[in-house]
Structures are given as structure tokens and as C-alpha cells.
Amino acid sequence: MTEIIEFTASDVRPERDAVFENQGIPPGAAVSSQIARLYGQASAILARTVAPAGILSEISKSDFATVYRGEGRNEENTPVGDIFDRADRLALFTITVGAETGAEIARRFEANDFALACMLDSAASVAAETIADLVEQRYRESLAEDDWQADNAGVLRYSPGYCGWHISGQKKLFEFLQPERIGVTLRESYLMEPLKSVSGVIVAGPRELHNFPITYGFCKHCDTRSCRQRLRALFAK
Amino acid sequence: MDLLAELAKGVIDGNDQKVARVTQQVIEQGTSPKSILDDGLIAGMNVVGERFRVHDIFLPDVLMAARAMYAGMDLLKPLLIKEGIPSLGKVVIGSVQGDLHDIGKNLVGIMLKGAGFEVIDLGNDVPPETMVQTAQEQDATVIGMSALLTTTMPVMGEVVDLIDRKGLKGQLKTIVGGAPVTADFARKIGADAHGFDAANAVDQVKKLLNVK
Question: Which of B60, B106, B124 comes nearest A38 by C-beta?
């Protein structure tokens, strides 16, 4: 079953610390009144322009194997490739903040209003992750409605372009999910329009399933280690 | 405080209205455009760059200073062109094909302009051919590439290879940067330089072009 979910601007209002962190400002740091004002302006513009939506569809393991194989450009071993066959349930998703926020960011850059453009860009990125969180939460709820239970259950999302899943995997994902229904299209380079969109697979199963080591070949090029933050958050639940 | 120092302070404070007003004043006083640029606008941006480097200020402060500098540059540019004063060099920048992350790349572009370079920003998701072709058409001497994804980093190598295949190695330099990009990776793909942050990228471009 495919579900299209619409959200309101207030559902995705970005937290100040998260936006600042995106700008390289540590949480709780003292900032000038100018920066505080920029955050207020960016939040107001985002609230006016955001059109948050998501699409979610369960997928069988065999269908996902086809989606994941994509154009055959993935790394040989990846976390998603290693775990999806052991998952209990899988769902594809795409979310977007909508086109207008991106257009507004571009207009601000064009007008040399760099600081506001960047603050709005960061706010929109945080909003996109919030929408993805909400869709993941919606999937958790639907699993609960189906009486799905796992010992120490863990539900986590993974996206093409990260952790060895080549971005060209978007092509098959789009063929299966058809996120055009919420206004998201794919460029030839496999990036999404609007840019502030997120897609991927939500993997549900025992929590330990997601506890992969950072010894994959591509890990040595990765300084962000954002997977560790995600795992810490998952295991803190 | 003399007017050029006042101008620099306006940039440091991110006060675009003040910078526009003082730039107009010094132009009317007959101060040379080169001096207004070097001793006012760029002097101010240099202070901002240094403060950012030592974490005394944050990214939005730099961007507000850049906007202020551009307010002065808008008035100054016609005079610089009229007097035939060249920029420090022309740099083509972009986030590589498949990568949409561009905050870091934008900051590099802004700081390069602030240092006196001419910057052609191709945006994000830029194919290798477009980068090299634009550099050739625009007579640029440096291509700056940014990537935030480990899966898009190899595209940087494709650009370096394309430059090589076109016989442009040596005359068209490359600098790479972005969160997962290391100096070791830059060496491996044959890039000429690696910028570990925006301020360092400006220093590296200066080195590549022998600018003091």
C-alpha cells in the first residue's frame, strides 16, 4: 500500500540549535543579535514557503533487491546490502520541503543576501530531516497497527548516495515509488528536484541488525561518521 | 579614523549600507579604485577571514561581511574595469556531478571574491565536461571542486583526468574540498591542491597562482 502524507509548516519548524549546528555554530554558543535576527527571518520565510509532503510504500525483499541493485554501481559490500535480507519489513519513502523554499534560497543568493540564504538553506535541510523523521515515525505506527513486534525493535532509514549505496539507485527507487505524485522528480544525475528532498528505504527488524561496523571500504573516506550518531540515537531509545 | 579604515570597519561589521555610502565618498574624493579595493574592502575581508579562521566569529558573520563588501564592489567594479585593473585570477567553482551540497562551495566562492579573485560559480551537480569547458571558454586558470558525499568524490578524479586528456594539465589547476575530501585523496587523483576549509582554500588558490 502506498500512502501520501501531508504535513503542516508547524510540524516541521526547525529547532534553532539544529539550524545553527548546520551553520557550524556549536549548540548553546552565544551569537550576535544579527545572527539571532537572521534565524528569525529564515524561520519566517520557511514557514511561508514550505510545502512538506511524504510518500511511503512497503516493498517486498525481492522487489527491494531489484531496487537496491539499481544500475549495478553499488560498492561490493554495504550496510543496506548486508542487512535488508534479514529485515522483518521494508518500505521505500521520499519526502520534500517543496519547491518554493528552494526558489527563495536561490533568489536570496542572487540578491547577494548570502547570510539569510545560507540560514534558510540550513533551516530547510533541518526541516527535510524532520519530515523524514515523521515519515519514519508514521511507518513505525503502521507496523504497530499490524501488530508487528520484534525483540528490541529497530527502525532506521538509509538513502542512496550514502554508505556505498550508489546514488544511481534512485532510478529504480523512483520507478517503484513514483514520488512525482508529491512533486519530486529525478535529474539525469539522479539528484532530486526540489533539492531539499530525501529518499531511501526504511528497514525494520531487530535493533542489532543496524549495528554495523565502520570497516567498509568507503568508511575510510568518510569524516562525518553520521552513521554513528544515528546508531547512538537508535540504541538510546 | 580615515575613510578607508572606516570602509574596512563597515565590511567587518557587515554593514552594507555604510560600506556603500563610504565607498561612494572615497570615490568622489578621488581615491584610486585599486586603493579602495585593497586598503578598504579586501582589508576588511582579510580581518573577517582571519577571525573566522580562529573561530572568533561564525559563518553568518562572514556572509554578512561579504554582502557588505559586495555593496562596495558594485560601485567600484565599473571603475576597476575602466582602469583596466585585473583581478587576481579567474576561478571556476562547483559542486561535482551528483552532489547538491553547496554551502561550503558558496563560502569558498564568496571568500575568493573577497580576496580579489573573479569567480564563476556553476552551482551544484556540475558535470566534468561543463567544468572544464567553462574554464576554457572563460580563460580561467583554476577549477575548484566540492563534494560532500563519498559516492561523488570520484567525479573530482574524472575532472582531473579530463584536464589531462585535453592537454591542459599545468595551465589549468585544480583544487578540491568538502567534508570527506582529504589531502591524501587530492594527491591520489592528481589534484593540484586541497582546501581543508574556505579560508585555507583561498590560501591554496593564491599559492597555485603565485599571488602574495
Answer: B60
